[in-house]
Design a protein that fits this description.
Elements (H helix, E strand, L loop, with lengths): L1 H27 L3 H30 L2
């Protein structure tokens, strides 16, 4: 079970990174509305990654 949670966390970290990079690209072109959308998306993925990491840690220490 911890392995699945670690995998899920990694996927969300990757998605957050992609969204951060996309937001940065839009900031550079002064497309603030789109940049804000991608920043919010990145924040959501970061939060999910944190939750998954915490679950994986709890599962790995409970065994």
């Amino acid at each position: 079970m911890a392995k699945a949670a670690r995998h899920e966390a990694a996927e969300h970290h990757e998605k957050a990174g992609k969204a951060h990079r996309t937001a940065a690209e839009h900031h550079e072109t002064n497309d603030i509305a789109t940049a804000s959308k991608h920043s919010a998306e990145a924040h959501g993925h970061s939060a999910k990654a944190h939750e998954s990491s915490a679950k994986a840690h709890a599962k790995s220490t409970s065994n």
